[in-house]
Queue: 3 jobs
Job 1
Amino acid sequence: MTAPIRPDAVAVNPFLPLDVYIPDGEPHVFGDRVYLFGSHDDENGDTYCPLDYEFYSAPVDDLSNWTSRGINYRAAQDPQYALGRTYLYAPDVVQGRDGRFYLYYGMAGEKGRKGYWGPLSVAVSDEPDGRYEYLGVVRNADGTPFSEYVLFD
């Protein structure tokens, strides 16, 4: 028989600092490191994804040694920020054929409570955990902004 779960029991993050909350995590291996890309929640916050992106990485042969280089991308870098979309949702990163790294993400307003409302945006960096610069919105083949669905999360 197993012991009942205590109402005051808590789970702790096994590898990141205890005050770091990364929902929508997307792990990727680039070179000899594993990177964790994700949204960034506020400790004891009352909303979702209000903080700028801060990515973590560790050597693939030592997953107990996670580090961060600080803020990688700020919501205010995206022109949608001025429209009241200040929350960064569910990012993912891919390496392009040119060797650069592309950060895809959606922005939201309403304190993050009404979810994503497009278009999707993209930023670029020379390193997976480097400083990303806003590149633009993702577009369909006909040039219109892609905002129908979130294809990653």
Job 2
Amino acid sequence: LPATGRRQAARLRALTAALSAADERMMGWMHDFQPADTVGLSAAQTAAFWTRQIQQLHQIQVQTSAALDSTRRIR
């Protein structure tokens, strides 16, 4: 491959890896999520549980959005 083709192939591999990492992170969250973890918790503990879940999902969203935004710049 010419240098331009090699650079483009490397960029596509990096984008694929970024998308895969975001997907794996979401799959991991879905696998680990147990809403029953709130059974028997106080209201404050339940609120803290859901706050952590929201924070984790926000981080996943940021990672996924960044990966998707990168793909829009492919030329």
Job 3
Amino acid sequence: MTKDEKEKTHVDAIIERYKDLMVEIPPADRQPGLSLLWPVPAQPAIDKGVRQAENWLADQIEGQLWTAFAFGRDSLPTPMQKTAFEVAFLTRLQQRLVADRRSG
């Protein structure tokens, strides 16, 4: 087995071992997504953060950006879920901002 094959096998084993702790922020606005290894299962909190940001961007949530962020975050029970929400919410906004900056 070559060195590259051994490294790939090692990485695949790590991914398999921790697959329940992987979270995904999907690509959007022609910007790449993000895969993260999270210390606790947190995909629902990630999904909620992305959804909340998308709803605000689409004017489906009335009010200030900070209120959409704060109310979404505060609806989650644990600090790690709140942080996952924050990362997803801000990443989704960043995807839009970068896309707008590059297109304009």
